Amino acid sequence: MALTSSTTPKGIVITVPVLVLAASAAAIFLVFLLSSLSSCSCPSNINISTSPVSASTAEPRVPVSTADDDAGGGAGRVVVSTTKEDVEWVKDQIRLNGLHMQDNVLRKGINPRTRAQQLQDLEQFKGISHYEGPEANNHTAFPCPGGLLVEEHHSNYGEPWAGGRDVFEFLAESSHLTPDSRVLEIGCGTLRVGLHFIRYLNPEHFHCLERDELSLMAAFRYELPSQGLLYKRPLIVKGEDMDFTMFGSGVVYDLIYASAVFLHMPDKLVWVGLERLASKLKPYDGRIFVSHNIKFCSRMGGEECTKRLTSLGLEYIGKHTHDSLLFNHYEIWFGFRRSKE
Fold it and tell me: Residue 91: is it exposed, middle or buried by C-beta count within 10 angstroms (0-12/13-18/19+)?
């Protein structure tokens, strides 16, 4: 039996087998198309903030891939956030193991020590096994002072050391950073925040200007070696008075930030710094973030401050807040951007 098209003048004949074969081919093509779409490796948005921020904060950035991810056959994503799913997972692990917070007291195999006691033990007993004789004759490649080994510098801040991670996540999201971004911190101290940027960014992409010598020694002699980050070669320079010449004239930053630094400086010096940094900030997309307050600006009055910023090619973009993941705390940040080339 044959089917004849009534609209064709020449009476083209289409047999049933041919019609069935065409329908089968179309079905196979449809299955292949749906399979291809379902296996698409297109990235999905990841919110890298652990807590809500102000409405003016930028949208969550799209995950990016790095050469290391691609070479290693990974998922092609750079994950720097703590998600709700992550928090629920760790809560489940605590619940499944029947864990409850206990007092840190002497118990079998565990002898709690304060930092002062640790330092005394280290200086008096030098550990369970150690090399005797002059330093030059032992096998320690880079001997570290005892005060740094017991992490006394972790208590130099007005909040827990863990808060550095919160600051990193907020700034990274707000500035849409990728590993190829360049970051400058004014006053990085002992790298409470900087460690996270150094780990995330490509080698040599983190810069810092710091004046305190002990903080710099803690960064170079303990934090970077102990965290396995020496290969990242961050450019950390001892200096003050907002002198950024040692970082080079051609560098352009995606993020410049100062955490609890500008409030300790004379207003005049802050403005000197902003004037020198304005041309080093990526136009439009780059961000400057200042924590706690901007009294260097508010003391001038809103209109006068706006004029001063405009003369430098900068624009105030709003006040932001972010919460901590691990303790009851939030920080305030004020954002600026470069408004012209």
Answer: exposed
For 163-174, what is each residue's pLDDT tens digit? 999 999 999 999
Residues in CB range of 31: below 8 A, 6 or more apart: none
Look at residue 111 and give its three-state secondary structure.
coil
Residues linked to residue 257 through DSSP beta bridges, in sequence order = 185, 289
Q: How many Cβ atoms are within 10 Å of 312's Cβ, its own excluded?
A: 17
**Cβ–Cβ under 8 Å, residues 51 and 328:** no
- Determine how many CB atoms are found less than 10 A away from the CB of residue 266: 10
pLDDT by residue (tens digit) across 54-87? 433 433 333 444 444 444 434 434 677 788 999 9
Give the dihedral sign, CA 333/338/313/241. Answer: positive
Q: How many CB atoms lie within 10 A of CB 291?
A: 19
pTM of the model: 0.74
| Dmax (CA) of the chain | 107
Contacts with 107 (C-beta within 8 Å, 6 or more apart), sequence order: none
Q: Are 61 and 48 in contact (CB under 8 A)?
A: yes
